[in-house]
Automatic annotation (TrEMBL):
PANTHER family: RIBONUCLEASE 3, RIBONUCLEASE III. The lineage of its organism: Bacteria, Thermotogati, Thermotogota, Thermotogae, Kosmotogales. NCBIfam families: RNaseIII. Mg(2+) binds at E52, D124, E127. GO terms for molecular function: double-stranded RNA binding; metal ion binding; ribonuclease III activity; rRNA binding. Keywords: Cytoplasm, Endonuclease, Hydrolase, Magnesium, Metal-binding, mRNA processing, Nuclease, RNA-binding, rRNA processing, rRNA-binding, tRNA processing. Its EC number is 3.1.26.3. One of its GO terms (cellular component) is cytoplasm. This is Ribonuclease 3.
Length: 237
């Protein structure tokens, strides 16, 4: 593969996003997964991991500013909305809407395992693209990009229309801050066909949930644990 092809693909993506005078090399880097960089060392391409790190911080700031300046919300409410909108499931959904996966540079193994549709990979690439826009065009253009792509999810979260996958939210939170995945244990199935589930982290009970199905009970347990973490964060602030 030649750099010309990467450049044309990145330029096509930039045009689709409606961004003018964007640094093409930065966008190529944002679209370059580590698997591609590692398999093609002779190309001297940097993966998007550093950009993703920066994009994560920029996204948190932009969402916080939007929620603070455009809505009258409590600190706790802003925190919950930001966390929901910046979650892996929403970012990957937004990435699919802008067809980001079509432009990713992936290694053969990642390509063959369906990397273009992986939520985690798409969410990370979305943050990398945001960082590339910020570095090339500045904060205002980065904010315009987020408002165009994510504003509807902010509105949905505010109105309660955004379906909250609390198991995903909790796992993202515990992996980010503790490097651990939560464990769900079926406590018992009660006489009225209600399932009871407990969720643990490193052996410590985080929350409990009940539901007509095991899946719903797990979601309730995750919701209990996740909101407990958020409330603790507010009290520490």
């Amino acid at each position: 593969m030649k750099m010309e092809s990467f450049t044309k693909s990145a330029e096509k993506f930039i045009k689709a996003l409606g961004i003018k005078d964007m640094d093409t090399e930065l966008m190529i880097r944002a679209l370059c997964h580590s698997s591609f960089a590692n398999e093609n060392t002779f190309l001297n391409l940097e993966s998007n991991e550093r950009l993703e790190f920066l994009g994560d911080a920029i996204l948190d700031f932009i969402l916080a500013e939007i929620l603070y300046t455009e809505y009258s919300l409590s600190e706790g409410r802003m925190s919950k909305i930001r966390s929901a909108v910046a979650s892996e499931s929403i970012l990957s959904r937004a990435a699919r809407e802008i067809k980001l996966g079509d432009f990713l540079l992936l290694g053969k193994g990642e390509e063959n395992s369906g990397g273009r549709e992986k939520d985690s990979l798409l969410a990370d690439a979305f943050e990398a693209v945001l960082a590339a826009i910020y570095l090339s065009k500045g904060l205002e253009d980065a904010k315009n990009f987020i408002e165009e792509v994510l504003k509807k999810y902010i509105e949905q979260a505010l109105s309660g229309e955004l379906v909250m996958d609390y198991k995903t939210r909790l796992q993202e939170y515990t992996q980010k801050f503790f490097g651990l995945r939560p464990e769900y244990r079926l406590k018992n199935k009660e006489e009225d066909e209600t399932f009871s589930v407990e969720v643990y982290l490193d052996g410590k009970l985080l929350g409990c949930g009940k539901g007509k199905t095991k899946k719903k009970a797990e979601q309730q347990a995750a919701k209990s644990a996740y909101e407990k973490f958020l409330n603790e964060g507010e009290n520490d602030a």
